Amino acid sequence: MISRLASTSSLPWCMGGDFNEIIHSDEKRGGRKPVRSYMEEFFQCLRGADLWDIRPKVGWFSWASGTRAKTYVCKRIDRFVAKNDWRLKFQDCSIETIPMAMSDHSAILLKMVGEERICDTRKDYFKFDFCWANEDQCRDIVKRIWEQDDSFTAKQRSRRTQAKREERRLRDYLTRLQSGPITDVNCELRRKALVDLKEVMDKDENYWFQRSRVAWLKDGDRNSSFFHARANGRRKKNRIEGLLSEGGLE
User: Fold this and answer.
1) Which of 24, 50, 105, 190 has the most Cβ atoms closer than 10 angstroms to its Cβ?
2) Residue 220 pLDDT > 50, yes or no?
3) Of 92, 218, 78, whose CA–CA distance to 226 is shortest?
4) Model pTM?
């Protein structure tokens, strides 16, 4: 398929996903020794299509399995490859390998050049996040703020900031564990970190599920990116860019 696509298109392009094969022996740790003929065949397939591997700047192994040192295996089988003219066009592109809580595959994020995030400043209003109800300290915080007449909105904003910081910390921790020695201790630390990351992601999904106002999806359908896009789309739709009067646009 790769060879056919390369022969039918002269445009600069890239492709990414699970290729289920490695190129070099340093892309696998643990388990059986990589089969050299398979690596060479995959390498020649990419070269024949003039596709070049884009090495990640953050993270390395994209798949891992096993809970003990004897059974633990990690590989870099998910990647982005690109035509040389595409790489010349997007010279500042970068790849990040992001550990996931519910899959043995990590996500691979391709960042393009020219990205610009525009954040609007808007006045927050209070809305209780029901994902709070599962936290042990929720009752005490609500009671204390109620008695002190404090700002609950500020507390929720602070909690969101802490949650995102904890998510980044856990992903970085998992990346370091994958690059460290394969021991029973590290395997157990990885298992516990994945449990903690899942808990953080469950709360994040509930947060965006509530804001998306999507009632037709079943509980448990894990698609936070969809909820996020839905919530932000509704926000943009409700935004008033300006008012047209006799004097012009204000």
Assistant:
1) 190
2) no
3) 218
4) 0.66
Residue 197's alpha-carbon distances to 112, 136, 190, in angstroms, are 27, 17, 10
DSSP H or E stretch at residue 198: helix 184-212
pLDDT per residue as tens digits for the range 166-202: 999 999 999 999 889 999 999 999 999 999 999 998 8
C-alpha distances (whole Å) from 73 to each of 80, 161, 249 are 21, 34, 62
Determine how many CB atoms are found less than 10 A away from the CB of residue 178: 21
Please give the helix or strand (H or E) that residue 228 lies within, else none: helix 224-238
- Edge-to-edge order in the sheet of strand 28-29: 28-29, 73-75, 63-65
Q: Which helix (H) or strand (E) holds 110?
A: strand 107-111
pLDDT the model gives residue 166: 94
Tokens of 185: 């201790």
Domains of the chain: 8-111 (3.60.10.10), 130-238 (no CATH)
Give the whole-number percent of the chain exceeding pLDDT 70. Answer: 68
For residue 230, the tally of other CB atoms under 10 A from its CB is 18
Question: Which residue is listed with tokens 């970068």?
Answer: 94
